[in-house]
Amino acid sequence: MASSPLTIYSLFPKSSLQLLTLFTTVLLSPAIAASTNQFKLDGKVLELNDSNFDAAISSFDYVFVDFYAPWCGHCKRLAPELDKAAPVLAELKPPIVVAKVDADKYRKLGSKHDVDGYPTLKVFIHGVPTEYFGPRKADLLVQFLKKFVAPDVAFLNSDSAIRDFIKAAGTNFPIFIGFGLNESSISDIAVKHKKKAWFSVAKDFSEDIMSLYDFDKVPALVAIHPAYKEQSIFYGPFEEKFVEDYVKQSLIPLILPINQDSLKLLRDDERKVVLTILEDEVDEKSKELIKVLKSAASANHDLVFGYVGVKQWEDFTESFEVYKKTPLPKMVVWDGDEEYYTVIGSESMDETNMGNQVSKFLEGYREGSVVQKNLHGPTLAGFIKSQSGVRLVLILIFVVLVMVLIMTMAKEEPLTVGTRDHAAGETSSIPQPETREARRDAVKED
Ligand SMILES: *[C@@H]1O[C@H](CO)[C@@H](O)[C@H](O)[C@H]1NC(C)=O
Ligand SMILES: *[C@@H]1O[C@H](CO)[C@@H](O)[C@H](O)[C@H]1NC(C)=O
């Protein structure tokens, strides 16, 4: 848990912030540093500051940046790992440069890049930042970052190539393998979802591989979720629209434990969430039910299935009116935003024939035999999809314009324009810091 400084802000629509950053850069930077390459690619971690940050980012296609503070414990532990990873990443083709910024000293630079905790880690790909939430041990970090520079689609020509590919891919991303599939069927989709999954096509493979990945004819597109020990198969039709639907739906495993990390996956998914609230995610009873839910999920691809234990995340379950005396498990359909539905007659489950009860719940939902409710109290949940991108951009642009005006009048630079804090001050729906802390603590308890 400690390794993942996720805050509410990461649920903020990134594009608006990028737009804002771009906007402020264009408007406010006196001059963007010349792009003559003053940086050596020697496998050392670059130490950047106010005067050379922009130049470094524009000099390299891939830059991993650690915004740290000298006094922060996690940062101190991370530093030697970055020293170890940097020479390996510098050798990749194309190379990934590792850099660090003392964001406590260079605060303006930090706030320009939305640093709201230490360390904040970002990958700049062609100048565009993506927040990094991956592992922090040198070897795992290298494995994670390799995704960004890997070919869009890998060609696997033997069983051993397939095995090596899976092994090298690790458990950070879903893996798609098109067995006997022409790469042209997935190449566009692979480019589109490159940051979220591995894509490959395999030409020659044995029957062992077919039984291992559980398909009996080709072409077959297999989606594997190493982290969730899950896989699924798609036999076509291999027209772009269908392949893309399958890929999009398979970026998320069939059934997902709900926590702050998995909420990030849900953020990008349009489907409604069949949410099962349990006493405790990891007890034996729950495991049985999760199996039942998984098979329901494979027959209902238009819905995402998730589960959460009261013991694991009580604050979150309270949003669905689960309190001490609420009979559990409770199932609802959540829109990923502010609304959810209970199904009349299927409000809770007992332990007899859970398969039937899940089917009955889904039938009831599809027939519209539901009661619509609003999430109870302010929750993390509400922030996933409730931010309307357009509205936010307008507000942010307005804030920037006001700032520019003030700056022109004041002739000084006392303002950290374009930070999330400013934006947060302007949008009432962003939670207060105390709430965030409380929520983070709630998650840490497990
Ligand atoms: C930033 O770092 C460079 C290279 O180490 C140094 O020459 C420069 O003076 C530094 N600038 C600031 C503002 O600290
Ligand atoms: C893959 O499809 C493209 C375009 O549809 C075609 O030109 C190419 O020959 C195919 N490749 C193979 C190996 O079948």
UniProtKB/TrEMBL annotation:
<keyword id="KW-0472">Membrane</keyword>
<dbReference type="Pfam" id="PF00085">
    <property type="entry name" value="Thioredoxin"/>
</dbReference>
<dbReference type="GO" id="GO:0006457">
    <property type="term" value="P:protein folding"/>
</dbReference>
<dbReference type="GO" id="GO:0003756">
    <property type="term" value="F:protein disulfide isomerase activity"/>
</dbReference>
<feature type="domain" description="Thioredoxin">
    <location>
        <begin position="23"/>
        <end position="150"/>
    </location>
</feature>
<dbReference type="InterPro" id="IPR017937">
    <property type="entry name" value="Thioredoxin_CS"/>
</dbReference>
<dbReference type="InterPro" id="IPR013766">
    <property type="entry name" value="Thioredoxin_domain"/>
</dbReference>
<feature type="transmembrane region" description="Helical">
    <location>
        <begin position="392"/>
        <end position="410"/>
    </location>
</feature>
<keyword id="KW-0676">Redox-active center</keyword>
<comment type="similarity">
    <text>Belongs to the protein disulfide isomerase family.</text>
</comment>
<dbReference type="InterPro" id="IPR036249">
    <property type="entry name" value="Thioredoxin-like_sf"/>
</dbReference>
<keyword id="KW-1133">Transmembrane helix</keyword>
<feature type="region of interest" description="Disordered">
    <location>
        <begin position="416"/>
        <end position="446"/>
    </location>
</feature>
<protein>
    <submittedName>
        <fullName>PDI-like 5-2</fullName>
    </submittedName>
</protein>
<dbReference type="GO" id="GO:0034976">
    <property type="term" value="P:response to endoplasmic reticulum stress"/>
</dbReference>
<dbReference type="GO" id="GO:0005783">
    <property type="term" value="C:endoplasmic reticulum"/>
</dbReference>
<feature type="compositionally biased region" description="Basic and acidic residues">
    <location>
        <begin position="434"/>
        <end position="446"/>
    </location>
</feature>
<keyword id="KW-1015">Disulfide bond</keyword>
<keyword id="KW-0732">Signal</keyword>
<feature type="signal peptide">
    <location>
        <begin position="1"/>
        <end position="34"/>
    </location>
</feature>
<keyword id="KW-0812">Transmembrane</keyword>
<dbReference type="Pfam" id="PF13848">
    <property type="entry name" value="Thioredoxin_6"/>
</dbReference>
